[in-house]
Write a structure and sequence with these properties.
Helices cover about 45% and strands about 20% of the residues. The protein has a four-stranded antiparallel β-sheet. Its main location: cytoplasm.
């Protein structure tokens, strides 16, 4: 296996770990998706066919089995002209021993959010950095996973559809496609054109260019930091560069 493939494998493990963590906290993740769907629906028409941001969120929500009632309620709230406004803010920081963290938030109270994020870092062995101190070490990436195909079959489908991707990785009965964010829909449409409509993962994420491994003690501290951040009501996504292992 090439080094680039090993690196992608580690990144996929991190995504699986993150997804498993969210799956174990369904009420929290449903609430976060409800807020994100509402914000996306207000950015344009509350119709995923004409609102790209909304379509992305709904594709992600599908892989987390977010109930239709929650999706419909968020969209109806946006249609109803709710005056509830949220700011999309990104915070960057550091955990133990070279670990880096990006925190994306949706908030209706910026002062509350920045105070809570800063406190979570401080109480769990980390510290906040300035804007840009971490993000340059990550790449915005579309990640789409599916089952029932080999990497060669997936490559053929994408070539037939003339869709460029960064990498294709076969991992534990799944094939994972890494692509530019702008190709998120193009990759999915290529699969849907051949009858593939179910995806194990459909994410727009931030992947670290280089992962770091932590000692057992540092990793325990780091996981407490991530948990504390993800527990915050205003936090939507937490990205990091730590290799969580198998």
């Amino acid at each position: 296996m090439k080094e680039s493939e090993k690196s992608m494998g580690r990144k996929w493990n991190n995504i699986k770990e993150k997804k498993a963590s969210k799956d174990a906290n369904t009420s929290r993740i449903y609430a976060k998706f409800g807020r994100e769907i509402y914000v996306a629906a207000r950015q344009g028409e509350p119709d995923p066919e004409s609102n790209r941001a909304l379509k992305v969120v709904l594709e992600r929500a599908k892989t987390y089995s977010v109930p239709k009632a929650i999706i419909d309620r968020a969209i109806e709230k946006a249609k109803g002209g709710s005056e509830e406004n949220y700011d999309e803010l990104r915070y960057e920081g550091f955990g133990p021993n070279g670990s880096m963290v990006i925190v994306d938030t949706l908030t209706n109270n910026v002062n509350r959010t920045v105070a809570e994020v800063r406190s979570a870092f401080k109480k769990n062995g980390g510290n906040m950095g300035v804007s840009g101190s971490v993000a340059f070490m990550f790449d915005a990436t579309a990640v789409i996973g599916l089952e029932g195909k080999t990497a060669d079959e997936v490559l053929e489908i994408l070539m037939e559809a003339d869709v460029d991707v960064r990498d294709i990785l076969e991992e534990e009965n799944s094939v994972i496609v890494y692509a530019e964010p702008d190709n998120f829909h193009a990759v999915q449409e290529a699969f849907k054109d051949v009858g593939i409509t179910e995806f194990t993962v459909a994410e727009l994420t931030m992947l670290a260019q280089n992962d770091v491994s932590l000692s057992e003690e540092d990793q325990e501290q780091f996981e407490k930091l991530v948990d504390a951040l993800e527990d915050l009501e205003d936090v939507q996504q937490v990205y990091h560069n730590v290799d969580l292992g198998e």
